[in-house]
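So, read this over?
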Amino acid sequence: MTTLPFGARLGARLLQASFPLIGSVPKELRNLGPGIADPAEIRVPTRHGAVRCLVYRPEPGPGTPPVYLEFHGGAFIVRAPEQDDHLCRHVAARTGAVVVSVDYDTAPRVRYPVAEEQAYDVAEWVAAHGAEHGWDGGRLAVGGMSAGAKLAVNVCQQARDSEAFRPVALVSGYGATDLTLAPGDRTSPAKHPAVAPWLLNLMYRTYFADAGRRSEPLASPALDDDLAGFPPSLVMTAELDTMAAESERFAARLARAGVPVTHERFDGVDHGFTHGKPIEVAIAALDAVAVHLRKAFAAGNRGVVCESDQCGRTNRGTA
């Protein structure tokens, strides 16, 4: 593996250093999930070394709790699972699930497909060893926002191929699915969209530096010709997001493959709307995640499809 150019490495380091300032979550969202204790840390073995995971436990209830595996965003450069603390607490409180937030490796330290393989290895480990920790590994759902959404999709792809386990649900929030698109091919009605061409260029020059591999289905799930084995999926998109079109196309492809899909489109907001203002939109999106997961956990691994009034596309405004 060749060394990344100095400019690409410097750009990645500057993004990582600035993230605590630009990625802070409003205090109104930090209060979600009251009663959920601070997460414990565990280290999960993977083919690329042990990965730190944050474990959020729900308040004790009847039976063994299911598991939701969460992958954070950050353009495959930012390494900060703590950014999803409010989301993890909300899911644990609203669903009664154990939430495992994964601290996967990022650029410039690694590049594709390290994070994708770590994501699958953690999921496989949780499915196989959950009972040892008091979790129901047979009711494992996966999800994430932005880059994390792609990693959750990647887990479903690899689980389909390995047949070692089967996630009961997928949550994909404003994720990338086609890395063959040029940064300029992604457009937005917003004058200054959150995911600008410079950020996409930096992601391409660092984590996806090998341009020849971006057309692989693991790099670009939109190019996967076999999506029929995916679990019931929630796909959330934002009207102003430069990534919205590819996520919407992916949701349509899942539906054509026979996968039960709920597509929630949030109007008037941009990429990252689950982590910022308007607060009411962020909470509506987090509630949609909780509803989707509760249904999937209740169905278990029986493959129950969603009812007709719960499937399809929903538009939500900002008011």
In short: The chain is about 35% helix and 15% strand.
